[in-house]
Design brief:
alpha/beta; globular; 12 helices; TIM Barrel; eight-stranded parallel β-barrel
Length: about 290
């Protein structure tokens, strides 16, 4: 399918100067969201992540069981949205969290570089879904975006969307730190949504530049414009580099200001992180918490 032509139906990207002004405006407003209620909500949007080369069945089982035990340990705090793992550990997590409402997210499709055969990407997505993944995070082909092969990049997303059943949430990582410019970040976001993404996500967390407020602003503006044109709500996920409760509150405020409070639900807003979980728990409890 041709996707690039549809980009002309949307307004141009904001300039870097316009983005900087918007970020500065929202930073001033974010202080009002440094509250226990906002921190609790942000905690409930976390895709609790372990994506390490030393992951094992033993370590992932322990990680998932700790997340499952959270329901009883902290009954006054809503638990994280999901546990995010490599495809080979989807079934492991499923066993560990059985009997809980915990959702399972799997990175797939050649994560984190997206540099393998499309057939391999499709098979990996299909196998992760078959093993029980409720949500799939894939990476947009950044190389194709940088060389202007927009239809090819979007068509990969379309193919991988078809490997997911209708009830599986597809998040597309645009790797905003590699795209760099508002123009490319906006194009990548729009192309991902046009090709079927349920969420657009900032980063893999595997390159030097991960989530930034500037990229978040551009992406949320694209989500708003896409919604106004199509009526379909697409979620936003900030991932990589979200380390403090204040960081989480800033992304919360970006979503609140640009997309509105109706986007402030785990169905439309996620934070991909592991380190921020303890930071949010500490802010909520008012004393140091090192649960993970």
């Amino acid at each position: 399918m041709e996707y690039a032509n549809h980009l002309n139906e949307y307004a141009p990207a904001p300039t870097a100067e316009q983005v900087d002004r918007e970020v500065a405006r929202i930073r001033e407003l974010a202080a009002k969201n440094h509250t226990t209620d906002v921190y609790k909500f942000c905690y409930s949007t976390i895709d609790l992540t372990t994506l390490s080369c030393n992951d094992s069945v033993t370590s992932v089982t322990e990680f998932a069981r700790k997340a499952a035990a959270f329901y009883e340990r902290f009954p006054h705090i809503p638990n994280v949205a999901s546990i995010c793992v490599y495809p080979a550990f989807v079934e492991t997590v499923g066993v560990a969290v059985d009997g809980t409402p915990m959702r399972i997210t799997s990175v797939a499709g050649g994560f984190p570089a997206s540099q393998t055969f499309l057939e391999v990407k499709a098979l990996e997505v299909a196998m992760a879904v078959e093993n029980g993944a409720d949500e799939i995070d894939i990476v947009l082909n950044v190389g194709r975006m940088l060389t202007g092969e927009y239809d090819e990049a979007a068509n990969e997303v379309e193919v991988l969307r078809k490997e997911c059943s209708e009830d599986v949430v597809l998040k597309v990582i645009i790797e905003s730190g590699a795209l760099k410019t508002p123009e490319l970040i906006r194009k990548a976001s729009l192309l991902s949504m046009l090709a079927g993404a349920d969420f657009v996500k900032t980063s893999t967390g595997k390159i030097d530049v991960a989530a930034t407020p500037e990229a978040a602003v551009v992406m949320c503006l694209a989500i708003r414009d896409y919604y106004e044109k199509t009526g379909r709500k697409v979620g936003f996920k900030a991932a990589g580099g979200v380390r403090t409760a204040e960081d989480a509150a800033l992304y919360y405020t970006i979503v609140e200001e640009i997309l509105g409070r109706e986007w402030l639900t785990p169905d439309l807003f996620r934070i991909g992180a592991s380190s921020v979980a303890n930071a949010l728990l500490t802010a909520i409890e008012g004393s140091p918490v090192k649960y993970y």
